[in-house]
Amino acid sequence: MVSLTIGTKRGWIRILEAVIAILLLSGVLIYVTVKNQVNVQSEELAKTVSDLENTILESIASSSSLRNATLNENYTALEEFVSSNLVDPDFNKGYSFNYSLGICDVQVSVCPPTAPFSESSITTTSSVFVEERIISSTLQNYNPKILRLYLWTS
Question: pTM for the full model?
Answer without folding.
Answer: 0.67
